[in-house]
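The data are quoted verbatim for reference:
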Amino acid sequence: MTFDDLLATFGSGFALDRIDELRAAAIGVVVSKAQRKKLAAGIDDARSRGRAGRIANLILIGLLTDQDYWVDWIRRSPVLRPSAYDLDVTTPQKLLAS
């Protein structure tokens, strides 16, 4: 399975319900720098639209394909870090639900 296939298959719906299938599909997928940028842009777009489920799916895909890079990206990104001006806890709740 390619990276684009992962996005098409697991980018919508509720990927946490299919986590074992996603893990199996992500084995051996090599992610390029351009694909990382595409995924980060998709996460930022979903965040700006308030689509917590889509954010959760894309973060899961990132973590399962390139964990070291995405853990660092999440740590630096505002996607899971609420601020005093924009307190939206739905994304962390979705990620931590299971």
